[in-house]
Amino acid sequence: MTQTSLDEHLQAARTLLEELQLHEIDQLRPMVSGHRSSLPILARGSGDRQFLLKYYLPPDADTILPAGVRADDYSRRETGFYRLLDSIDPERREFPAPRTIAVGPGDPARWLLLEWLPPAAGPAEEVISQEHVHELMHKLGSMPTERLMGRRGFPLEHWDPIGYLDRIRHMYDAVLFVIGEERWRNLQRFFGEAVRWTDGRPHVMVHGDFQEANIIVTEDERAFLVDFECVGIGNRDHDFAWYWLHSERHPEWKRQLLHRWLGHTVGGDRIRAEWGIRSAIAYLAIRRLRWGYLTHGEEDSRQSSNLALLDAALEGGASLFPV
């Protein structure tokens, strides 16, 4: 997104804040969501109460969206999810998310106003613990999924090996040059086996972008999730794999996290969990390779590391799951 277009959207968001009788809280620089799909702005209202405005952005002409995703899917999913939460848990007694203040008009809604959850001071390594990560994943996994399904205008994501394979097939033209025919055939066989091992596992709620940037721990040690633009249902190991790959923690900390995640599984359940993690990693590696190729062509500096990640996922064993 060009600086000019970002400035224009920022001005429109500030005009909206004035209409809502809110005042922007100065930031060092404008924040943009990880998908570059929304502009989050901190604001203050009467009584010094603080809010977060999410102002959804139209994509630039050269924006590369994930395979099968439409530009307005992010706003439809998030506003639809908050409307669902408001109907089943308005005070957020069960689900750790901010309370909804207002949803903008239109379909899809152009903006969303949420309560602001002030995070505890300090780096993520000191504030977000393994207990917080596991607690949030447990709460996601225990939420009923029936209410998410069949909602009109809600582009529900399916984060499971069947869904991964469907997306990957849409990436064929972009990634075949990078991975080659042999890897492509191995990938097809791999997902056939992944479906065989994971089919029949109960679907759970999946955040879809579970990483430290979307976790808020408050001063009283309560952990919350934000940014539900990719929410869906599916593989119970998806959010763990996503977090594990995006985390920049010390390798030993991550190894302990992995052992803790797998610690309650034995026998066939352990094998199914490993296949769930491997399939999510393989999907993410292919997605990264597609984005790198479409953006940088043969000059993608991360191509070799993402190919190594893909190969490790396809192989499994000690390369991914150290004893």
The order of strands across the largest sheet is 1-2-3-5-4
Count of individual helical segments: 10
Order of helices and strands: HEEEHEEHHEHHEEEEHHHH
Main sheet record = 5 strands, antiparallel
Overall geometry: globular
Separation of the first and last Cα atoms: 44 Å
Give the overall pLDDT as a whole number. 92
Number of strands: 10
Low-pLDDT segments, ≥5 res? none
Instruction: Please state the CA-atom Rg, rounded to the nearest Å.
Output: 20 Å
Structural class determined from secondary elements: alpha+beta
Instruction: Indicate the percent of residues in helices.
Output: 40-55%
- Beta-strand level of the residues, as a percent range? 5-15%
* Assembly classification: single chain
Describe the structure.
With 323 residues, this protein is α+β, with helices and mostly antiparallel strands. Helix content is 47%, strand content 12%. Helix 5 packs antiparallel against helix 6 and helix 7 crosses helix 9. It is globular, with a radius of gyration of 20 Å.
Topology:
Elements: H1 3-19, E1 23-24, E2 38-44, E3 50-56, H2 73-88, E4 100-103, E5 111-115, H3 124-127, H4 130-142, E6 157-159, H5 161-170, H6 172-198, E7 204-206, E8 215-217, E9 223-225, E10 232-234, H7 238-246, H8 251-262, H9 267-296, H10 303-315
Q: In a few lines, what is going on in this structure?
A:
This protein is α+β, with helices and mostly antiparallel strands and 323 residues long. The protein has ten helices and ten strands.
